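Extended Data, panel c. Modelled sequence:
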Amino acid sequence: MVVLDGSRLAGLRNWQGLADVAVQTRRAGVADGLLLDVHRAPFTPASGEAAVLVTALAGYSAVAIVSGGGASYGCARMVSTLVELLGSRAAAFLTEDEAEVWLSQQVGREPDGSAAARELAPA
């Protein structure tokens, strides 16, 4: 599983950068599952930004999105639903612990922070 830190998102360029990192990581074959952690930043992508992100995330077998509450959580649920419509398992969470447990169950790994988990941040 890979943890992708999306806490520095501020606009379309950053959304594209986040999507690019997700795609590059998937192509490298380092993980089946992705935990996208955006709980420290507002997660309110516009429809075009969400589409870019959904396409990038849908290549993983399972995606967990950790967001803050309110509108950010609603957007995380929307993105996870769109990812599911493209054939991956996805869900939104308010805590990293819940997301990690769910994601570990989806990809058949223990949620223990083992070497299988790697943390990445977009440049």
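The domain at 2-120 is CATH 3.30.750 (Transcription Regulator spoIIAA). This feature is highlighted in the accompanying rendering.
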